Amino acid sequence: MGMFTQSVEVSCAQNGLPLRLEWQGRTYRLGAEPVRWYERRNWWEEESRAAAGAGAGLVDSEIWRVQARLDGQGPLLTFDLSRHVGSGRWRLIRLHDAQQQRTA
């Protein structure tokens, strides 16, 4: 489906791992272990200055790749989510369409 950004609600376990997400009025339950990494962002395009000690969340974006099923059933869909470190808000930034993936 491609890149975009849209607000999404994510419920997490005590250890911070995502368990399920709500997107467009539907609930998706994780069916595989999520993967997390960090990406650099062009913070200077949005901020005029970086406050001392404000590295986490300013320079790096926390990205999660989760595989989930609609209502816990059906095929796994792969979502890339971004979590804002300061506010804890989640954004859906990419939905990988399994139907369009090609095998070699």
What does this molecule look like?
The protein has one domain. It has no helices and seven strands. It has strands at 2-12, 18-23, 26-30, 35-40, 60-70, 77-83, 90-96. The protein has a six-stranded antiparallel beta barrel. Strand 1 and strand 2 form a beta hairpin. The radius of gyration is 15 Å and the shape is elongated. The relative contact order is 0.26.
List keywords for this structure.
51% strand, 104 residues, 7 strands, six-stranded antiparallel beta barrel
Structural Rg: 15 Å
User: What structural class results from the helix and strand content?
Assistant: mainly beta
Largest sheet: 6 strands, antiparallel, barrel
In order across it, which strands form the biggest sheet?
1-2-3-5-6-7
| Number of β-strand runs | 7
The helical percent reads under 10%
Q: How would you describe the oligomerization state of the chains in this entry? A: single chain
Please write the string of helix (H) and strand (E) elements.
EEEEEEE
The shape, in one word, is elongated
Give the count of structural domains: 1
Quick check: average pLDDT? 82
Beginning-to-end CA distance, first to last residue: 20 Å
Share of β-strand residues: over 45%
Which residue ranges are poorly predicted, with pLDDT under 50 across at least 5 consecutive positions? 99-104
Helix segment count? 0
